[in-house]
Design brief:
By secondary structure, the chain is α+β, with helices and mostly antiparallel strands. Helices cover 47% and strands 21% of the residues. The protein has ten helices and eleven strands. The strands form two sheets. A seven-stranded antiparallel beta sheet has the order 1-2-3-10-5-8-11. It has a four-stranded antiparallel beta sheet with strand order 4-9-6-7. Strand 1 and strand 2 form a beta hairpin. Helix 4 crosses helix 5. The protein is globular and about 60 Å long. The chain starts with a strand and ends with a helix.
């Protein structure tokens, strides 16, 4: 007999193993977690998953790209796509997530602003999303009425995302190149993801978007509570960390790969972020992997 698993602890809430009947979009699992430092997932999933970051920081990596992520952002995982995401050492994130599948999922996600080239989006008005998750946690049984409640709340969540995306598109069309803060941040993150290997500066990013450096920094502070410079450094450091554990490239080569011409400057920035040198980070990660696989 099929059963639903519901976990309710101090820092972890999760409803999973659902088998809903909707053809267009159906809930598979959802939850909330206050992650410990370095809490990570690596692998593939069978369903789509959106994580909404409520507080703290971490990184998300897929298809050779790595993004630092903080409060007020959300990231999408596609089925069968290898991903890695990990909580920060000093300020591990707390997030809520929803996993779903269905024939209409791609269309729905497109209307929400997601695509394979736009996996990270700002998630303003987090209280609206939290309200949906609170409502979902009130309907955890296999009864027909609870199934209908879950389906309606999932659709409401997607409607909120779609409405926000539509608002941004219409606002952009009406005001031409004048965007809200979160749109500036999204454009900057896209540019950083494309050009982080080059020796780009905050001024380069602002010039590319067409606003002043101070305006861009204000947008980052308001949306992510972090400066553009800090975001750029963290982005490069997380990308470097991924290369350290997934390749045999030298530290100098990795420094060049993430936009640093000076290995010493890179190593100092890396140690400041992770609390250890690049070589020690690689050794530490290898030892952790060996212990994890030990019978």
């Amino acid at each position: 007999m099929h059963t639903v698993k519901y976990t309710n602890s101090i820092d972890f809430h999760c409803l999973e193993d659902l088998r809903e009947n909707s053809v267009d979009i159906a809930l598979v699992h959802m939850g909330k977690e206050e992650c410990k430092p370095y809490h990570a997932f690596s692998g593939t999933r069978d369903e789509y998953i959106i994580h909404f970051v409520l507080s703290g920081n971490g990184f998300y990596s897929t298809n050779g790209n790595t993004w630092p992520i903080g409060p007020g952002q959300m990231f999408l995982i596609y089925p069968e796509e290898p991903v890695v995401y990990c909580a920060d050492k000093n300020t591990p994130w707390t997030y809520v997530w929803v996993g779903f599948k269905g024939l209409g999922t791609d269309t729905i996600l497109k209307h929400c602003g997601f695509s394979k080239s736009h996996l990270i989006l700002p998630a303003p008005a987090l209280d609206k999303y939290i309200g949906c998750f609170d409502a979902l946690f009130e309907h955890t049984t296999l009864s027909f009425s609870d199934r209908l409640y879950r389906e309606s709340i999932l659709l409401k969540l997607m409607a909120i995302l779609s409405d926000h995306h539509t608002h941004l598109v219409l606002k952009g069309n009406q005001r031409k190149n004048v965007y809200e803060n979160n749109a500036y941040v999204a454009l900057a993150v896209d540019y950083i993801n494309e050009m982080y290997m080059q020796n780009i500066s905050v001024l380069d990013i602002a010039d590319r978007i067409g606003i002043t450096r101070s305006h861009l920094n204000h947008s980052f502070q308001k949306e992510l509570n972090i400066s553009v410079q800090r975001f750029l450094i963290d982005f490069r450091m997380h990308k470097a960390a991924n290369l350290l554990v997934s390749t045999t490239m030298s530290v100098k080569e990795i420094a060049n790969q993430v936009g640093y011409n000076d290995q010493l400057v890179f190593s100092k920035a890396f140690k400041k972020k992770f609390g250890m040198s690049p070589n020690n980070y690689r050794t530490h990660t290898d030892e952790m992997e060996i212990r994890k696989n030990r019978p």
